[in-house]
UniProtKB/TrEMBL annotation:
Species in which this protein is naturally found: Cohnella endophytica
Broad class of enzyme this protein falls into: lyase
Localization: Cytoplasm
GO BP terms: amino acid biosynthetic process; aromatic amino acid family biosynthetic process; chorismate biosynthetic process
Domain 3-dehydroquinate synthase C-terminal: 187-329
Residue ranges occupied by any 3-dehydroquinate synthase N-terminal domain in the UniProt entry: 74-185
Database matches in CDD domains: DHQS
Keyword Transit peptide applies: no
Protein name in UniProt: 3-dehydroquinate synthase
The keyword Zinc is assigned to this record: yes
Gene3D superfamilies for the chain: 3.40.50.1970, Dehydroquinate synthase-like - alpha domain
Pfam families: DHQ_synthase, DHQS_C
Family matches, as NCBIfam families: aroB (TIGR01357)
Gene that encodes it: aroB
Matching InterPro entries: Dehydroquinate_synthase, DHQ_synth_AroB, DHQ_synth_fam, DHQS/DOIS_N, DHQS_C
């Protein structure tokens, strides 16, 4: 690997895999595919989106071709609406037409949308083929690690999916430099999330380096993405299938996923919805008697990164409340929330009164002063 490349392991026994983080890595993809034993004789399906294809597909295709691979590239429209059953159907068709067999590999080149969608194609094509994650957004430090793959239903996010771990994750930090500013901010939301749920020191570091992160200063970005992937890898390694601990990665998602579905996929970016959801979760913490400064700090930090912290006024509270009932954590008639107990610590609460949640949603509406 190129000097300066960092490597982490997602420790899952026989399904363990590395995450390579560094610069100039797209050009090394072919040799890494060979190193990981991905068969040359079976065609590859490369899935990317309409914004990423012109930026990075050529470099990847060239590297794979030089290593002897035959690659067919399928391009989906960029944005959340591509995480759909219709697009899954299209891509399965593309795989069949390209002659993919059971030894083939599906590659995701793009952000979390492409990662989740291509991952679900890999999980379902012929009941499962190999999969490689090549993330190109900040957000995708989260989505490319851990094996959650899915498409959306109009009523609920990620409700049709699977757990399907990649062979490896190849994170070429050069790709991040072309991200639009709104996507940079949205991605930083989930990076800060990893600190809020696991590592208060990392939150303080993000706070102190906000300017460098927003400017995509390479050293700060490389360190932060490494830390974000590391936290994700630790949690996933302890509880791959979300029997318990892994649910903490869902901080902000009970409200956030509901907002995405009710607003219509793509109106609020995932990271934006989760930013609002994290402020909501922190306000819930105060209701459970935890320090009110947790909510104040959470909000201040998100404002510093230029993220939304209020629910758009046109979204209906009752619709948001009923969308939350479709949350995957909802069980035995109870709402479940990941609640911060300090900056860098959370607990899983299964005793959350829906009246409290409704009060918080109302209090978070645009134009409402803090309750
Ligand atoms: N599976 C998981 O564990 C997990 C974790 C976090 C998020 N997610 C999912 O990830 C999705 C959000 O991911 P995202 O924020 O990466 O969104 P995205 O994939 O839609 O990418 C954001 C936008 O940036 C563009 N883009 C991507 N890379 C680019 C680049 N390098 N330069 C210029 N433009 C680029 C894309 O075309 C898109 O328009 C959501 O669907 C969310 O549910 C999944
Ligand atoms: O990997 C996880 O586990 C997460 O919860 C990470 C989240 O950031 C991500 O948005 C995930 O897709 C949400 O999972 P879901 O099970 O609530 O759909
Ligand atoms: Zn998320």
């Amino acid at each position: 690997m190129a000097g300066g490349t960092r490597e982490l392991t997602v420790d899952l026994g026989e399904r363990s895999y590395p995450i390579y983080i560094g610069t100039g890595l797209l050009a090394q993809a072919g040799s890494l595919f060979l190193k990981h034993g991905l068969p040359v004789k079976s065609p590859i399906l490369l899935v990317t989106d309409s914004s990423v294809v012109d930026l990075y597909a050529d470099k990847l295709e060239e590297s794979l071709a030089a290593a002897g691979y035959k690659v067919t590239t399928a391009v989906v429209p960029s944005g959340e609406t591509s995480k759909s059953l219709e697009m899954l159907d299209e891509l399965i068709g593309a795989g069949l037409e390209a002659g993919l067999d059971r030894k083939s590999t599906v590659i995701a080149l793009g952000g979390g949308v492409v990662g989740d969608l291509a991952g679900f194609v890999a999980a379902s094509y012929m009941r499962g083929v190999r999969f490689v994650q090549i993330p190109t957004t900040i957000q995708a430090h989260d989505s490319s690690v851990g094996g959650k793959v899915a498409v959306n239903h109009r009523l609920a996010k990620n409700i049709i999916g699977a757990f399907h771990q990649p062979e490896f994750v190849l994170y070429d930090l050069d790709t991040i430099l072309s991200l639009p500013m709104r996507e940079v901010r949205a991605g930083l939301s989930e990076l800060v999330k990893q600190g809020l749920l696991w590592d208060g020191e990392f939150v303080r570091w993000c706070d102190e380096h906000a300017e460098q992160l927003l400017a995509l200063e390479p050293e700060a970005l490389g360190y932060a993405l490494y830390e974000g992937c590391n936290i994700k890898a630790i949690v996933v390694s302890k509880d791959e299938r979300e029997n318990d601990l892994r649910a903490i990665l869902n901080l902000g998602h009970t409200i956030g996923h509901a907002l995405e579905a009710v607003a219509g996929y793509g109106e609020l970016l995932h990271g934006e919805a989760i930013a609002i959801g994290m402020v909501g979760a922190a306000r819930l913490a105060a209701k459970f008697g935890y320090d009110e400064r947790i909510a104040e700090e959470t909000e201040r930090l998100h404002v510093k990164f230029g993220l939304p912290v209020r629910i758009p006024s046109h979204l209906d509270t009752d619709e948001i409340m009923s969308a939350m009932m479709h949350d995957k954590k909802f069980a035995e008639g109870k709402m479940v929330f990941i609640v911060p107990t300090d900056i860098g610590r959370v607990e899983i609460r299964k005793d959350v009164p829906s009246s409290w949640v409704k009060e918080i949603v109302e209090g978070l509406r645009e134009g409402t002063r803090q309750a």
